[in-house]
Amino acid sequence: MSSQPPRRHPLVPLRTSQQTLSSSIAIRDLLDSLSREQRFNQELLVSLAFALRTFTNLNRFIELVPIVASSLVGVKGSLLVPFQSDGCIWRDQLHVTPAVQYQELLRQLASFKAGMSVGFCTEESQLLAMDQLVQRHIPRSSMFSTSLVSRGHQRGRLYVFEPKGSLVWSEVHRRHIQLVADLTAVAIENDQMLQEARLHERVDRQLGVGAEIQSQLLPDHCPVIEGIELAARCRPAFQVGGDYYDFMPTRPELIGKRRERGRWAFVIGDVMGKGVPAGLLMTMLRGMLRAEVLSGLPPDRILHDLNQLALEDLSHSHRFVTLFYSDYDPRSRRLRFANAAHNPPLLWRAQNRFVSRLDAPGLLIGLQSEAEYGCSEIFLEPGDVILYYTDGVSEAAGIAGDRFDEARLISFLEESCRSSLDAQEILDKLFSRLDSFVGTNHQLQDDASMVVLKVHEELILPSVKQSRA
Question: 227 and 177 in one domain?
Fold first, then answer.
């Protein structure tokens, strides 16, 4: 055994041990604090995301945005300035925290003249002026701002600030604020899309009502007139259209067979333009024309008087009307007609199997106050066919980009008439040809209307030779 005493380990000073322990505790506390802050921030962001997907009221959502933004960064102030769809400041949705302290700032933003102009959000100089306005009303403060952007469009601006203090800023803070800004931009865009969808729904409902009313103004069936067949159809390019056709007895007091043998007016017209304005004008003209028919005047006088009555209303709307007016007497088979620059109807003569045009000189309705109209007449024969139509038929665009045109319409009319079809069958075949030309997946660019009038074909009995007694 060794006689030397055992070697002792050097003693660690007590103070150094305590310092190490204190440092460990401090680091652990710091990590716990960071962990709590991280969980807190995550809960804030989750709450904002939950509000985005559950709140149906945008105002309830964006009220939370300044509160969440300031809490994420650990500052006392935040301001949200959203923009409307036209780029103006959305004055009703300005929000700031603390609200009581910065009411004057909200009033200044709400009355900011540049912010009321359409497209304000696209002008960098104007946005900079707004940033300076905000800075002036929060003096001696550290501030950070970012844009609310969705689908490449500015939806607003978000500011966070520390009044009378320095803003301790980090990359994490920047990412958090940008995430809040992005969520808010999506919320604003969704609300604007929802409002637009509701507006479109209301317009669609109104158009549906308008289309229903207009469809009721067009004849729901063709009248029974002695010696002829009638078939008619209007296919509007939109829900409400500017095409018009009508069948009107010149003596509506007659009934039964006397009505069938009485004189009738046949009219087809087209307001320049489409949609609701054209439909409203054509509805107005319908009322005027029906009153004129009762006068019993010849077609040229009817168009003259109609032009005088409608001129002021049409001039205010900067629109004109084409109109072909004719009256038919079943007893004599005489058809008188006048034309206000409408597409001339096509006449198929059964005897010579040839198509010609029915036309007469005349200007558009609503163009000149002293417009004069010519009047012509023809006598129809058994098997003759008249096709009234609007330019939506002849000018319909095909799949290849060419037009249906009058020559093609004449060719198809000749083909149908040679097949000895009745009026409804001719109409169906012509629309079938038009649909095939345009294409099943393509929409007509203009309203298309056709009316077919066919004189009954006389039944000719074969002669029987008498046998000699």
Answer: no
